[in-house]
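Second opinion, please. Pick holes in both lines of this record:
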Amino acid sequence: MAGAAAHHRSEKNAREKKIGPFPALAVVFLAFCWLSEAATIPRPVDTLEQLQEKFDNETDAVHKAKLMQKLGDAQFAKEREATKAGDFVTAGVVMEKYRDNVRAALELLKKRRPQAEKNASGYKQLESETAEGLREIRDVILAMPEPLRPPMQIVESDLSKMNMELLKLLFPRRPGEQPRLDPRASTPKKDEPPEKLP
């Protein structure tokens, strides 16, 4: 009996040696394949209207600024489609709405996170998005007939001003720039005698 049990154990050990760690690796490999396939399944993309609604309802300044990136991409796609079709009125309306969205995000950032230099999150993303918007509006202006350009040039000017404001908020102390002096502080008043040196 002891010999049969020993023989059974030796057969089991021999089978384990032949199979090796394959079953465990196979399970890990199959799980990895399943997870990577699940990650590549496309998720439903939000429409422009859904993104606009999310943006309008967002009350967190940083989230609003970050959401502006997705919304801006969707607006640019619609604007390019309209421009390609020669529908410059729709392209103009989309870019005006884009400008209004950038303004809304900037105003909320300034209200909720007033020190951009110390709390740059949101400001950086919005500045990057605004710079991209400027490139986009310039392309639209070049593609438009001359009579339709003036409203888009106003949008370009507004975006440019907001981009400069964002840069100044992020980098208030730029190298090489002289600080502005208050002229009232540097001139002594008539009634005050000049300071005497000891």
About this structure: Residues 48-170 form one domain. Residues 88-112 form the longest helix (25 residues). The CA atoms of residues 96 and 154 lie 9 Å apart. The two ends are 115 Å apart (CA to CA).
